[in-house]
Amino acid sequence: MTLSVAVADLPGLIEPGKWVFVPGSSGAPQAFMEALQSSQENSRDLRLLTTYVPGINALDMTRFHSSAQITGLFMQPGLGEAQRDGRYRHLPLSYAGFNRHLADAVDIDLLVIQVSPANSHGQCSLGPAVEFVSTALRKSRRTLALINRQTPYLENSLSLSYTSFDYVCEVDTPLPTYAPDCNPDALAIARHIAPLIPNGSALQLGLGKVPTALSKSLCNHQGLRLYSGMLSDGFLELAKAGALDEKFAHTACVLVGSQSLYEKSLDWPNLTVRGCETTHDPRTLLALTPFVSVNSALEVDLFGQCNLEHANGRCISGAGGAPDFARAAKLSAQGVSIVALNASLGTGRGSRIVPRLSSNAVTTLTRVDVDYLVTEHGVASLAGASVHERAHAIISIAAPEFRTELSQAWASIAEHL
Prior knowledge:
Number of strands: 25
Strand content: 15-25%
Strand order of the largest sheet: 1-10-8-6-2-3-4-5
CATH architecture of the largest domain: 3-Layer(aba) Sandwich
Number of helices: 13
Radius of gyration: 22 Å
Shape: globular
Distance between the termini: 67 Å
Low-confidence stretches: none
Number of domains: 2
Structural class: alpha/beta
CATH superfamily of the largest domain: Acetyl-CoA hydrolase/transferase C-terminal domain
């Protein structure tokens, strides 16, 4: 039997010490989280597993009871102290790795999801965010569905029967939006990337300034097939320009962007939202030819190792799906793995291209996962290049004021190779 629960009573569904799973991005059940955090006592001995995404879903540990423990796939600024004292646990896993972890090692007591109102057949759509819900459903003892009036019913998203839910709660909550700006450096980087992407490519784009700019730079392409972890408003821009393959099921595990994206997604029957067990599955990705992956980095060294997670010595994000997509693009027939970044931190602030990754940084993408590095100063082709050739190519796209310093550093490193 499906029980209806008021928002104020939602925290009462949590059993202390047992796992609650809360998805992130545009599928974040915000009404549940607000109810949970309305009093710190609600989260006493809470064990929360979440895929909240930095820049889209904020986590504030001060709103939870000191006995609560939250486990997440991403770090966020401000969570460092909570991680050090064990209240926040960051899992260093890619999306594919987390999906396996969820399937093999986690038993969920309560799964909290957000869905559309039921259609005439009693089916509720997960709308713009499926993410890990398909896998979590198989591992959860109970399911709470927030029936959100503002979640669109997408025909090509996962739908669930209203009667399959243990609890339902009627809410009317705006979906999280995401709208990165597009600056001149990002546009310059995008113009360098565009020629590397053949017409007809299956294309993965991350989120951020460069992917936003790249969507603008690809409007004259033809037959592009989007297959990504997350798709944003760039999909609408490319569709309007006629750059997409109209017969292909353009696919993501999450749509996250403007309110217009959520509304207009209803007009595109070939826009598909699937779970990460599909979108990040290496067998699926390897079958997409040619598959081109474009990801951003915070720091790259002269070996071609890429740090996507640490800035200024602190972890601020997670690997996300970048390792899954980059490795698949590198190994697929005619595939291309591209990593893009600004060459510098800003005037007088230092270079993002460094001799070696910082001692307190991590290697998110190894040097064997990247074909091209791109900055606003050009393209470094790494595929088929020797260690020394790669280093010189990378130096050539660094900010000009740092190239001499980088060349001297490489000369010192090369003495020990």
